[in-house]
Design brief:
Strand content: 15-25%
Strand order of the largest sheet: 5-6-7-3-8-9
Structural class: alpha/beta
Number of helices: 6
CATH superfamily: P-loop containing nucleotide triphosphate hydrolases
Distance between the termini: 40 Å
Number of domains: 1
Oligomer: single chain
Order of helices and strands: EEEHEEHHHEHEEEH
Shape: globular
CATH class: Alpha Beta
Radius of gyration: 20 Å
Length: 249
């Protein structure tokens, strides 16, 4: 494997069996489940330090692709190879225990993203402060809103010094103040040449600033984008970004 490669997917597919409601008689008859293909023969190579934006409509397979890269969801066929410490901000329940407090989950999730116990202890206060959830850090995780869960997950990711960051559009669930904080942090990590960033959103205006390269998914398949396509996306969304987030410019 080329030492410059961070992520490589070869003929990767993800299928789900769809179970339909059946009548009483049909329950006694063997029926084949219908198959839904969320991803279809994905071939993708991402180099170390690349910033890749995955765009596409809701249901196009963006989140599924991120989960497969992050090892959260198993793929059905194909080969998935990743090289480097991964932090995933996709499924906010993954890596956290609902009954543990925020403090306890910092220790748990910190170990899962590759920190050792001394690093967790050293960064505990920094993670708590960055999350900005205050006294809730001592409350059970199941009491958190989705925005609070993201704050804690992001704070752990920041401290982990990961080599590959997978970011889904869940980061938009925070309030405006924390959203600006997240955007500022993303701008900062964009200057880290060794960090590979894969960010997905159905609306490209939330990824255009951070991506050097775009991948469009349509019904589980990669659609090639030309340079003109990318420039059109950038021009279209630049003014919208400034209008909605004037304080981040």
């Amino acid at each position: 494997m080329d030492k410059t490669t961070a992520i490589k997917l070869t003929n990767v597919s993800k299928d789900y069996a769809l179970r339909e409601k059946s009548t009483l008689i049909e329950k006694f008859i063997k029926r084949k489940n219908k198959i839904f293909s969320a991803l279809k023969n994905i071939n993708l190579t991402i180099q170390k330090g690349e910033r890749v934006g995955i765009i596409g409509s809701n249901g196009s397979g963006k989140t599924t692709l991120l989960k497969i890269i992050g090892g959260i969801t198993p793929h059905t066929t194909g080969i998935v190879e990743t090289y480097g410490k991964i932090a995933s901000l996709i499924d906010l329940e993954a890596g956290f225990h609902p009954d543990l407090t925020g403090e306890e989950n910092i220790a748990l999730n910190g170990l899962l993203v590759g920190m050792n116990q001394s690093e967790v202890k050293e960064n505990k206060k920094k993670i708590s402060n960055f999350s900005g959830i205050g006294q809730f850090i001592k409350r059970p995780f199941y009491t958190y809103s989705s925005g609070m869960k993201f704050r804690l997950a992001l704070a752990v990711a920041v401290a982990s010094k990961c080599e590959i960051l997978l970011l889904d559009e869940i980061f938009l669930s925070g309030d405006d103040k924390f959203l600006y904080k997240t955007i500022s942090w993303l701008r900062g990590i964009n200057r880290r040449q060794n960090l590979t960033l894969v960010i997905a959103a159905h609306d490209p205006m939330f990824v255009w600033e951070f991506a050097q390269r775009y991948i469009m998914l349509d019904h589980g398949k990669i659609v090639e984008l030309s340079i003109n396509d990318v420039m059109s996306i950038r021009r279209k969304n630049a003014s919208l970004w400034k209008k909605i987030f004037p304080h981040t410019i």
